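> forwarded from #structure-qc
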């Protein structure tokens, strides 16, 4: 049996002022709360809850600023736009981002990294990138006993968009990128997801 790796959870607060979606929402003079972000190296999608104006009115304003805005209901939008510098960094890193909470120019990221060395390199990368940031917490997740290969399979699937609503990649393509057969990749991913889900359900009160 392969030894498990030490998964490290890092919560970090990053300051950035180049989020076109947040800046446009502020320009729309509407109260809003970004409740979810699907980040990408080029484009990030934001689930936005509004108050004070209708979603269709705000969507029209955002489209005039060359952002994609899809109306879910009268107070909810999906808004897509170019990724800010912080989200681009996260998307191109080896971290799994499992939580994002943007507030104005500040955004809190909860990320998983495959080792303490990986966490240190991640933080060094932020410094090299010139980001203004604060480390909120760093902790080991002992109960997620992923092997290195399982973590690689899970990270690759996450980064390439396997779990997106509109799937961007296939298991066959991912398996080729990892250098294994599709059946082996599927098994690695299944075991990794099982361990991650066990962790989350065990954390529930």
């Amino acid at each position: 049996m392969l030894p498990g790796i030490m998964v490290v959870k890092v919560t970090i607060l990053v300051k950035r002022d180049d989020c076109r979606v947040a800046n446009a929402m502020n320009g729309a003079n509407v109260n809003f709360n970004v409740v979810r972000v699907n980040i990408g190296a080029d484009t990030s999608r934001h689930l936005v809850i509004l108050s004070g104006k209708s979603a269709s009115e705000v969507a029209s304003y955002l489209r005039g600023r060359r952002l994609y805005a899809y109306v879910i209901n009268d107070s909810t939008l999906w808004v897509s736009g170019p990724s800010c510098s912080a989200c681009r960094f996260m998307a191109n890193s080896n971290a799994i981002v499992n939580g994002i909470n943007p507030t104005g120019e500040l955004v809190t990221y909860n990320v998983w990294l495959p080792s303490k060395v990986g966490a240190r390199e991640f933080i060094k990368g932020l410094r090299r990138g010139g980001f203004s940031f604060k480390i909120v917490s760093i902790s080991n997740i002992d109960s997620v006993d992923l092997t290195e290969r399982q973590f690689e399979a899970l990270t690759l699937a996450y980064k390439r968009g396997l779990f997106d609503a509109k799937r961007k990649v296939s298991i066959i393509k991912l398996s080729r990128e990892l250098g294994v057969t599709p059946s082996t990749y599927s098994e690695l991913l299944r075991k990794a997801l099982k361990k991650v889900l066990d962790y989350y359900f065990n954390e529930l009160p």
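QC bot note: The first strand starts at residue 7 and ends at 15. The CA atoms of residues 154 and 170 lie 13 Å apart.
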